Amino acid sequence: MQTFQYICKMLLTATMFLQNLPLHTIICLIILGFVILSLLIYYLAFYGRFVFRKEKKHILSEEYPPISVIIVAHDEAHHLIKSLPELLTQDYPNYEVVLVNDNSTDETPQLAIEMKNKYHNLHYVNMASSVSTIEGKKFPMAIGIQAAKYDLVLMTGASCMPSSPYWLRQVAGRFVRKTRVVLGHASYGRKPGLFNKLLHYDSLETSVIAFSYTISGMPVMADGHNLAYHKGIFFKNKELYFRHAQLPFGEDCIFINEAVHHDACNVVASPEAVMEQYPIDFSKWMQIKQFAIISRSFYKVIPRILLKSYNWLCFLFHAAAIACLCLTILQHNWIMLGIVCGAILLKIGMQYLVFAKGAGKLGEKSVVPGIFFYEIILTLLRPWIYLGSKFEKSKWK
Q1: What are the phi and psi torsion angles at 211 (to 5°)?
Q2: Three-state SS for 225?
Q3: Which of 187, 373, 219, 377 is CA-nearest to residue 307?
Q4: Which of 91, 117, 154, 351 could form a disulfide with 228 if both were Cys (CB 3.0 to 4.6 A apart)?
Q5: Sheet harboring 265-267: ordered strands across?
Q6: What is the pTM of this model?
Q7: Which residues pair with 126 in a beta bridge?
Q8: Residues contacting 217, CB < 8 A, separation 6+
Q9: Are 195 and 282 spatial neighbours (Cβ–Cβ below 8 Å)?
Q10: Residue ranges per domain, the chain?
Q11: How far apart are CA 76 and CA 74, in angstroms?
């Protein structure tokens, strides 16, 4: 409440100095004020519902449900040799890892047999002779779900490493009451360099948005590298599951958006519950971001509009802020310059508060010092990502 009172006072003060300003300056100031106010609403009304939420402790060990972890691997023996031991030695009372070999031509079968002899909880499914008209991971993932021994299934990737031995406990501990789906945070392994920091910030922003919308009753985004749900959702919605089977990315988001009721979804926010993927290069990341934009065209109307609006508001904020700073400096209007700087700092401060709080929950504290810098980079890249998505769209047909 105090924040909005401060904003109102600042706006009233600003109107006193608008009368003698040129029209184009007034327009820029109004746009900047509207954009900042809109972004503050996003930070407080949406993202604040997640980042300021008090996380409940997980359930007692004797109440943990049995769970099946499902991995689909295609020529990824070099990843599996590192990830499987971590996945098969989780501190969890009753679980299995279902490894689906999707027609691999490398050492995956031999590695799976060796691991199976060593770990009793590995369930190996070989699809070397299977034929399907469905490309991608949807068909082998469906085979893995059907082969799973337990009702609760948790999806991840061959190149993914859990952040702790308690990953399963954290995820399964969120299945309480009516919960049928749990979303987890997926990030990347850490490497030196600016781009790796950008990957982590992008993962942080994506999860904060996804978790906030889920808590707000609009489950719309999910990461298939750390996603758990009851098999009943799959069997009840097989048609929905395979409707977008040809899509190269984003089908998990669409499936959750279409198949899950708003009160059946929960999130797990803990540094111990993060799934870290093997780092990717810039071109692969750009392609994933382009596919994510295309997948949003299949979302429900309200969350689709809200997600698009936020991206545009971020872009408009930087454009309007630069324009207002330049105009007030050129006109030597130092009072208005101070008001503009105050409004900009208010927005940046709230952004830091929200995403720094989210970073603490999701184990991404290393990106906190550069939050505003990484957001500028993403804002500059978004037009290129959007244009690139238009060329990629043909692959979805």
Answers
A1: -70, -40
A2: coil
A3: 219
A4: 154
A5: 122-126, 95-101, 67-73, 152-157, 227-230, 181-183, 265-267
A6: 0.87
A7: 101
A8: 262, 263
A9: yes
A10: 2-52+303-396, 61-298
A11: 5
The single residue listed with the structure tokens 């009172």 is: 5
Residue 67 corresponds to which tokens in the numbers above?
Answer: 């769970």
Per-residue pLDDT 10s for the chain (397 aa) are 566 666 666 666 656 665 566 777 778 888 999 999 999 999 998 899 999 988 766 554 557 899 999 999 989 999 999 999 999 999 999 999 999 998 888 899 999 999 999 999 999 999 866 555 556 677 888 889 999 999 999 999 999 999 999 999 999 988 887 888 999 999 999 999 899 999 999 999 999 999 998 888 888 888 889 999 998 888 887 766 666 666 656 567 777 777 676 668 889 999 999 999 999 999 999 988 888 887 777 777 888 888 889 989 999 999 999 999 998 888 888 888 888 999 999 999 999 999 999 999 999 999 999 999 999 999 999 888 888 777 665 554 4
Instruction: Kindly state which CATH superfamily the domain 61-298 is placed in.
Output: Spore Coat Polysaccharide Biosynthesis Protein SpsA; Chain A (3.90.550.10)
Where do we find the tokens 């003060």? Answer: 13
The one-letter amino acid code at 101 reads N
Do 33 and 339 contact (CB within 8 A), yes or no? Answer: no
3-state helix, strand, coil in the chain (%, to 5): 60, 10, 30
